[in-house]
Amino acid sequence: MNKTPRIPIPAEVKKYVWQRDKYQCRSCGKTATETNLTIDHIIPLARGGQNDISNLQTLCFTCNRQKTDRIDPRFRRHFDL
């Protein structure tokens, strides 16, 4: 499997993903007023995930750290692995 190169996510894309996800962690549900939010690749770049907006989600810093480069099983139905 080829690792996708990491590119900086433009500010407008981050803003769109945060708005789409209602400024809420998709894992634990914490909001931007409760924690620091990050942009996460649902299918990690290290596992062949893409830099496409459909592969991005909002996670809090803690959930993002716990996920590392694992594939979140809740999203398997959306992607062919």
From TrEMBL:
Residues 12-65 form the HNH nuclease domain. GO terms for molecular function: endonuclease activity. InterPro entries: HNH_5 (IPR029471), HNH_nuc (IPR003615), NA-targeting_endonuclease (IPR052892). Keywords: Endonuclease, Hydrolase, Nuclease. This is HNH endonuclease.
